[in-house]
Amino acid sequence: MLPAGIAADEVFDTQGSELRQKNKEQKQHGKPDLNAETADLSRNALDVLEVVKSYARQELIDPLKVVPRWLILGLIGSVVITGGVILLMLALLRYLQSDTGSVFTGNWSWSPYAITVAAVAILIAVMWALINKRSLS
């Protein structure tokens, strides 16, 4: 049991008991409790500020941390793909020059180069169309 005249919140609350006592006295004398209201407003303002900071960190800063990784992986991937495409085009040219027999000899000796350049142009056009698309699916 609590002694007479002491509320339960005064017994368990070790911080701010003097402020509560002062506020009770002010309420009894008809004075408004401005200190408690100001403290509540400033605490709410600090809470809002903390929420805004954490939201900004979550939506702006955290996604920017992975950008260097994606740039490095993208550059490595583009170098590997470019090397592969060059080797494929050289293989196509070599095939057209050697394994087609006498089809591309004489006046037609330029045609394997033209076919290879056309294949590269078609490949570039397809890649350009895929890059300008909003999504790949």
Structural write-up:
The protein is mostly helical. The protein contains 5 helices and no strands. The radius of gyration is 38 Å and the shape is rod-shaped. The two termini are 71 Å apart.
Element layout with pairings:
Layout: H1 8-12, H2 17-28, H3 34-65, H4 67-98, H5 111-132
Helix pairs in contact: 4-5
Total tally of structural domains: 2
- Identify low-pLDDT runs: 9-15
Overall structural class, as computed from helix and strand content, comes to mainly alpha
Q: For the terminal residues, how far apart are their CA atoms?
A: 71 Å
How do the helices and strands follow one another from N- to C-terminus? HHHHH
How confident overall, as mean pLDDT?
Answer: 79
Query: What's the Cα radius of gyration?
Result: 38 Å
Overall spatial form? rod-shaped
For this entry, give a set of tags:
0% strand, rod-shaped
